[in-house]
Amino acid sequence: MSSKKVLGESDLIFSSASFALKNALGELKRNHQSVGKRLRSIYSDATFVQSVADAYNLPLVANERCGSWYIPQDASVGFAHSKKGSAYFKSTDGHFGQWSFSLRRLNLQVLDLIGQHGGCIIVDSTRKGKSMPDALSKTVPIWATTLNRLLFPDERDFHSLQVPGNVVSASEAQQIDLRIDGFLTQLGTLELDIVALRAQLQERPMRCVWQRPGDITSSDGCDRSRHNTIVLCTASNFTSTEASTDLNYIQGAADDHETWSLGLDAASFWTHCERFLNSAEQDLPELVATVMAESPHSRVVNPPVLIKPTKMLWLGDEASADVHASDFDLVISCTMSPQDALAKQFKKRYLCLPCTTGKLGSRQLRTELSRIEELSELGNFKIEPSPQKILVTCPSGTDLAVGIALAIVCRFGTETGSLDLNQAAPRINKDIIKHRLSWIMISAPHVKPSRATLQSVNAFLMSD
């Protein structure tokens, strides 16, 4: 009895026409994802965002990093509404089964704006195949509901999870809602100033509504005397996972801009948007290079940020150290390229912790953190008679420097924020680390320490 032969890959013969077709389809896909089409798609989506701002008369807040591409940096480009703030809500905190209230991304910086205007519009987008990013359908609602329960315990009408019913199923919403009290307990360990936060919101809880292209845009039901309205705006039009009928439109065109933008950033795009939109595709690489070389935005130096409630610890990037170092008594730099001028100027008061960037740098930090014990030997850095000023930096000022600052406030800090580098704290646990991290996240909401960096800090602080 003979058995049928199973065909293998080597038995298949493709004609040259098949290969030609495959190459043509690949070229068509690459052309559809071109930089020019992405920028025109972004501009088109931005006009929708403007219509939402017109309807609600609320300030626009970009959910970074993607959201900034859909909002002009100022009103000079012909749009009436410009970017008024930034938020950092991650879609991963809204993924199914991974729902979370992030203690690393508190986003309390938007509360003032919300309270002053009766709400805000948070802008984001998503790729083909989804009508709304998880950051807007779940992460922000989790955040708003948890804060409502913390700040307004008597306003029970605002304690239930609010999600878009046509995007999030009733079953998933119920599962998330069951976790909110756990998030509330975690948030309570940070000992936030509830009275001050409630005052920022003008004593009004938050309510979420959603807007997508094609939805009816109406501010009806937004009672600003009763609550603050958080409009969660998806900028991009929904297209199916099949080939789009509009070959000139790319859904979620701004996503992962590092992979397609040729080095262009959102601020420079909006400053020169007419030039970009009116240029031929083949001219864009050279135009981007020219604009970025001339852009003053690329040369902006952000001043160091004081980590409150301390009076002596500041956070910055390497560029800020070059400009502002003379204002400080001690500089700690986490970099593979020590700043020779600072080393010469500060001598023993310049401490370089050699770490590269990325996950490898975070792992290297675990070893280098032990060197902060040297701080007590670098002079008499006591808080009396007047506070000394310490600047902590890394290339970006948002990751490794945060880890160093966190280690310092945990190792040498008190509950009130006083620092004494001559005396280390006797006991450190996870609750203390989370609480001190909240100081940094509230003082410098733009920072984004990686999980690997925070794990290295935890390992160092709790190794005794």
Automatic annotation (TrEMBL):
Domain Rit1 DUSP-like stretches: 350-461
Pfam families to which the protein is assigned, alphabetical: Init_tRNA_PT (PF04179), Rit1_C (PF17184)
Superkingdom of this protein's organism: Eukaryota
Keywords attached to this entry: Transferase
GO cellular component: cytoplasm
Domain Rit1 N-terminal: 28-292
GO molecular function: tRNA adenosine(64)-2'-O-ribosylphosphate transferase activity
Swiss-Prot/TrEMBL GO biological process terms: charged-tRNA amino acid modification
PANTHER family, A to Z: TRNA A64-2'-O-RIBOSYLPHOSPHATE TRANSFERASE
Protein name: tRNA a64-2'-o-ribosylphosphate transferase
Organism: Dissoconium aciculare CBS 342.82
The organism's taxonomic lineage, starting at the top: Eukaryota, Fungi, Dikarya, Ascomycota, Pezizomycotina
